[in-house]
Amino acid sequence: MPGGGFDQRGGPRVHGAKNTLPLSARRDVLVFSTPPLGRDMEVTGSVVVELWAASTAPDTDFTAKLIDVYPPNGDYPDGYELNIGDSILRARYRTSREKPDFMVPGTAYVFTITLYPTSLVFQKGHQLRLHISSSNFPRFDVNPNTGGPLGLEQITQIAVQTIFHDAARPSHVLLPVIPL
Q1: Complete domains list, the chain, with CATH
Q2: What is residue 11's three-state secondary structure?
Q3: pTM greater than the 0.85 cutoff
Q4: In terms of Cα–Cα distance, which of 79, 70, 81, 83 is closest to 37?
Q5: What is the pLDDT of residues 83-93, one digit of tens each?
Q6: Which residues pair with 41 in a beta bridge?
Q7: Is 113 within 8 Å of 51 (Cβ atoms)?
């Protein structure tokens, strides 16, 4: 993968992309967007996503990606979706990186996904966008969703994910906003 931020659309530079649709159009990406900002907003620090989720699989991945959405302009008539930061959490390591803890399919768990620290002023008219998914290939390895040995598993299975955002299971993002 190329380093740095890039537009979140398919195309020849994106591994496996067959079209130029934005990633936000995919059925396996959950998208949260602000309205266009009425003023500049500085975000400095670590962005943390607290995600309540369940899966049909004993192990799976959850990913989060923060995006700066530029409005259409002369340089980018369709706008530009600039990835700012992302991260991933393998479900079996949600409580400890040393001791795997497999999921009970259908049971809700909380996942803390910490994105790399950033410092950026989202400009007036831009949108903040958060992508939640279960994969971010080729940036991160594919999870076979079986719970088998990592890097050795020969079988894969489809995992159906459920994301919760209700009073009992309040998925949310902690965004370090700095007053301007």
Answers
A1: 23-164 (2.60.120.260)
A2: coil
A3: yes
A4: 70
A5: 999 999 999 99
A6: 122
A7: yes
Token pair for 40: 């500049």
Counts for the chain of helices (H) and strands (E), in that order: 0, 11
According to DSSP, the β-strands at 30-33 and 127-133 are antiparallel
Composition of the chain by helix, strand, coil, percent to 5: 5, 40, 60
Tokens 């930061």, residue located: 85
DSSP string across 106-147: T--EEEEEEPPPEEEEEPTT-EEEEEEES--TTTSPPP-SS-
Among the listed ranges 22-26, 56-60, 82-86, 115-119, which one has the minimum average pLDDT value?
A: 22-26
Which of 55-59, 98-102, 141-145 is predicted least confidently? 141-145
Cβ of 99: how many Cβ atoms within 10 Å? 8
* 117-137 pLDDT, tens digit each: 999 999 999 999 999 999 877
Beta bridge partners of 32: 130
Nearest to 132 by CA among 61, 43, 36, 81: 61
User: N- to C-terminal Cα distance for the chain?
Assistant: 34
Residue type at position 126: H
